[in-house]
Amino acid sequence: MTVDFGLKKELEEQIRVFPDFPKQGILFQDLTPVFQNPETVNRLAESFISAFDGKFDRVLAVEARGFILGTAVSAVGGRPLALARKKGKLPGEVHRADYSLEYGTATLEVQQGTLKQGDQVLVVDDLLATGGTLSAAGELVVTGGAKVAGYAVAATIEGLDGAERLSPTPVFSVV
Ligand SMILES: O=P(O)(O)OC[C@H]1O[C@H](OP(=O)(O)OP(=O)(O)O)[C@H](O)[C@@H]1O
Ligand SMILES: Nc1ncnc2[nH]cnc12
Question: Which residues are catalytic?
Fold first, then answer.
C-alpha cells in the first residue's frame, strides 16, 4: 500500500487544525477544505481503491464525514455503498454497536440484510483517531456476516494508537 506523496502534501496543506474543538484539549482536524476540492476527493478515492485493489467488493461509509469519501470510492470504484449511521436514523431492523471516540460516545447502526456472507467490505471514513468508530463499524460488518477487507481514511492522528487497535486488519491512511 503505497502512499502518493503528492496527495499527502496536498492534504497537509488543506487540513485546518482547531485547538479545543469540540472540547478542551482536542486538536480538531477539519477536512472541510478537502471536501471543497473535487480533484483532491477524486484522488483520495483512487488512492483508497488502488490500496485495496481487487480485495473489496463493497464499501461501508461511516456517518457523517465518512459518507463523503465513501460515496466517492463507491462511485469511482463501481462497488455498492452501504451506510453505517448514527443511532435512530435507519428504518427497519438494524445491527447496533456502541463505542467511544476521542471526544465522546456514540452508537452506529447498519440495516440488517445490507451486508451478505462472503462480502469483502472496505470501511471508509475521513479520519482515524482512537479507532473506536472504525472498530465499531468493523464489528457491524462481522455481525452482518461479512468480512472487513480493510479500513481507509484520509488522515490519522498520531499518538492515539488507532491503527494498532484495528490490527491485524490493514489500515490505509494518506496522512
Ligand atoms: O477514531 P475515533 O476516536 O473513533 O474518531 C474518529 C471519528 O470521529 C469523527 O466522527 P464524529 O463522531 O465526530 O462524527 P461526524 O462525522 O458526524 O462529525 C470522524 O469523522 C471519525 O468518524
Ligand atoms: N481530533 C479530531 N479531529 C477531527 N475529527 C476527530 N474525530 C476524533 N478525533 C478527531
Answer: 65, 102
Distance 60 CA to ligand 2 centre (A): 19
Cβ neighbours around 73 below 10 Å, total: 25
**What domains appear along the chain, each with residue ranges and CATH number?**
5-173 (3.40.50.2020)
With a threshold of 0.90, tell me whether the complex ipTM lies above it.
yes
Predicted structure pTM score: 0.98
What is the pLDDT averaged over residues 41-55?
Answer: 97
Q: With a 6 A CB cut-off, is 65 part of the ligand 1 pocket?
A: yes
Cα 120 versus chain centre, distance: 15
